[in-house]
Amino acid sequence: MLDGSKTETLLEVNNIEVIYNHVILVLKGVSLKVAKGGITALLGGNGAGKSTTLKAVSNLLHSERGEVTKGSIIYRGDHIAGLDPADMVKRGVIQVMEGRHCFEHLTVEENLMTGAYTRSDGRGAVAADLEKVYAYFPRLRERRTSQAGYTSGGEQQMVAIGRAMMAKPETILLDEPSMGLAPQLVEEIFGIVKSLNEQEGVSFLLAEQNTNVALRFAHYGYILESGRVVMDGPAAELRENPDVKEFYLGMSDEGRKSFRDVRSYRRRKRWLS
Amino acid sequence: MPEQFLFAMEVILNGLMAGVLYALVALGFVLIFKASGIFNYAQGVMALFAALTLVGIMDGQIPFSHIINAIFGTELHHFGWHVPALLAIILTAGVMVVFAWLVQRYIFRHLVNQEPIILFMATIGLAYFLEGVGDLMWGSDIKKLDVGLPQGINDWIDVTTFEAFGYGFFIDNLDISATIVAVFLVAALIMFSQYTKQGRALRAVADDHQAALSVGISLNFIWVLVWSIAGFVALVAGIMWGAKSGVQFSLSLIALKALPVLMLGGFTSIPGAIVGGLIIGVGEKLFEFLIGPMVGGATENWFAYVLALLFLVFRPQGLFGEKIIERV
Ligand SMILES: Nc1ncnc2c1ncn2[C@@H]1O[C@H](COP(=O)(O)OP(=O)(O)O)[C@@H](O)[C@H]1O
Ligand SMILES: [Mg+2]
Q1: With helix as H, strand as E and coil as C, how does chain B read?
Q2: pLDDT at residue B7 above 90?
Q3: Quick check: is A191 in a domain?
Q4: Between chains, do B207 and A113 touch, taking CB under 8 Å as contact?
Q5: Which of A117, A158, B236, B320 could form a disulfide bond with B272, CB atoms 3.0-4.6 angstroms apart?
Q6: Chain B, nearest residue to A161 by Cα
Q7: How many structural domains compose chain A?
Q8: Where residue A65 sits, what CATH number does that domain have?
């Protein structure tokens, strides 16, 4: 288990503000840290700003007319504003986007190989990593010649993660891997994320709406609401926090609440900012 | 064998050869459209410009000599050397790469995320601009282009078919070499896109820009690559057409013939562009041969467009338009 005080910080997001289209202020001062070798969860409802935060780090924001207007993002001691996504991938940071974004008309294997686009360490090393990805995702080996567009949602999520692994990353920014998947598949995917973390030493910044699963697998968590971090702490503590239990894990005395109920009720609560 | 049938055979063969050119131009469209969603109206002018540049380089013409002479009162026209065809083709291909880079750097980089209609308008502007630049650089007179491809009726085919059927087929050597070159070009393109890293990246970009960015593929680089390839395809089409009917403005109009080809083949399908080109080539020659005499001829002018119209009504995605995969 990771001990916050001793581990090295890989990524540091300091009080960033993000604006889309020059007018829409989406992040209003988000700060977080990602520890080397850890799984850090970024939690919060739909529209909270999780994806925006990840894209600010991977620098995919530019292509969506988004801009970091305040604060700084530091990876391994370097300011990374102004780099392009390819530079980030070369530095070991790759994003797995929400909704998987497989290349539909490419085969599963071709999809995986695109992950190695920026690498220059030779065919042999890439081939070895392809084998490794197949070892973690045996299902992908079976489907390697299928067009990705015709594989199931779970398989596409595996393709997306496997493709990121092909870049030999140090940190994966993983956006909503559980989205639209059956609970059993969600467990399977998170199980693999955990072993990639433990065996391959890949650090994760994981955006999730599924707080329950995310907090079981993560080491540390941040909760985001309307573009602000409203709470953070070790995952085990967040899991036991009564507010988190009530609002995000849907466990109150009256039983499980629908998400909408929880949210409108929540607005009256105080730990807003 | 009945006379009529042999005539028709000859017509079909000639149609296939004409179709190869349509297919080449359509291919240029498909490449750019697939990778960037831009419908490149300038594809035909690119063929003209490439052919003009090739002739200019081969003849050792001094580019922009008209302007230079007008400003400085000089009488410059030629460097006084001749460049061998192969070297000139390589140099022209280089010019098309520079052109691709300029187009990406100064036009489309500033239009990222714009509506398709805006991108289309930009290519219309580009077409007229390039036409003007071509005129200024190389002059607007009709030029002969001879890169050393065999010309004239193929005697061997004539004699052989005469001996076999009692009727000799007239097939132009130029058409035969155009077909061979086109086949090699298409094969090379397919090999490139299927089996190389950049080819795979190109297909990835065509599928999903965002995802391509996320794995570190540079869209700018891929788009320059695609425009370069389209420029090279335009060069090959320009050579073929120019060798046949001289390098002149009408060359850029072959682009208009590519439109019905695209409607038949689908805007995103490489096999579609090829098969569509061949169908239009054969179709218009055969139609002219069979039906033309009954309606007073000149059907080649409109046949392709009417066929395309029928396709638009009954099968808008074309013969090979990519199926949109809908499965989540
Ligand atoms: N490209 C964009 N342009 C404008 N607004 C956007 C864009 N992407 C996201 N937003 C807005 O930013 C807010 C946060 O979105 P997002 O980061 O996707 O949240 P989450 O991933 O937590 O659901 C939302 O209100 C959303 O509407
Ligand atoms: Mg999101």
Answers
A1: CCHHHHHHHHHHHHHHHHHHHHHHHHHHHHHHHHHHCCCCCCHHHHHHHHHHHHHHHHCCECCCHHHHHHHHCCCCCECCCCCCHHHHHHHHHHHHHHHHHHHHHHCHHHHCCCCHHHHHHHHHHHHHHHHHHHHHHHCCCCECCCCCCCCCECHHHHHHHHHHHCCCCCCEHHHHHHHHHHHHHHHHHHHHHHHCHHHHHHHHHHHCHHHHHHCCCCHHHHHHHHHHHHHHHHHHHHHHHHHHHCECHHHHHHHHHHHHHHHHHCCCCHHHHHHHHHHHHHHHHHHHHHCHHHHCCCHHHCHHHHHHHHHHHHCCCCCCCCCCCCCC
A2: no
A3: yes
A4: no
A5: B320
A6: B215
A7: 1
A8: 3.40.50.300
